[in-house]
Amino acid sequence: MSAPLIIAMPGNEAMTQALARTLHADLGSIELHAFPDGETYLRFLSDPAGRALIFVCTLDRPNDKILSLLFAAAAARELGAATVGLVSPYLAYMRQDRRFKPGEAVTSREVARLLSGAFDWLVTVDPHLHRYGSLAEIYRIPTRVVHAAPLISQWIRTHVSNPLIIGPDSESEQWVSAVSKDAGAPYTIFEKARRGDRDVEISVKKHRGLDGRTPVLVDDIISSGRTMIEAVRLIMAQGAGAPICVAVHGLFADNSDTSLAQAGARVVTSNSISHATNGIDVTELLASSVRELAPMPARDSILNDSG
Ligand code: R5P
Predict the structure, then answer these.
(1) What is the DSSP letter of 157?
(2) Is it the case that residue 307 has pLDDT exceeding 50?
(3) pLDDT on residue 301
(4) Contact (CB, 8 A) for 55 and 77
(5) Are 219 and 192 in contact (CB under 8 A)?
């Protein structure tokens, strides 16, 4: 069995190269081109025939990416790939996980249907599982979820003395409690009321004093940044210094990275989405999950092949 062939969709080159090194996979490539009318041209520059293919495509700003990804997976099959898997460190559309108002599309299910139809397996990092218990509720292919919490705890242990971990809303408690346990630090959870995409109010129900601790806000996603910015304001209104904001996925819509920096916060994210704030590396965890799902040659044969 040959080594898997791993291919970066645009913007995923750094993660793909890191995964290729860790997995001893061959780096493949495709050519993508936008025609003047906006349609996509796609061509394999590496032959996928008979290979275990791994595409790497994080799905922030997903609408521009999903169609090319589906074309790539379908073409790989037509060209004879043995299997076609997807590493999508940030999995999009997971927050629309029910019909909040009559008539709404439950887009998490639709994206799951599209990706399940195109790929044999999926590996991702901390998808936003709030009302779904697991990805198996909507994905009908084998999936593995990598949890960044142990790496976040390790980052906090190494970089912050005497931390208080703070979750900005009840949804964050699942990540915050795991991080706090691992980091050996206490945690508290704020309350959030969201009135619109960019209209968020954060409040404190049960006040837990900072007692001289360094506030570390932890959440899965920073999108518009309103959740973190309002939480930063609340903490600073209590006379504390600006907190450190740690998120698994830094989407940074509306230039919220700049707004958070202007509010005085230090921001740290994982490299599930490539950004200047990346301080937490999920490559090894992703690679371990890929090894469970992608057909891989025995480690000995890789070492022998590479001399
Ligand atoms: C909410 O459900 C998530 O856990 C995040 O708190 C949220 O997505 C952050 O969004 P924003 O940065 O737009 O406030």
Answers:
(1) H
(2) no
(3) 62
(4) no
(5) no
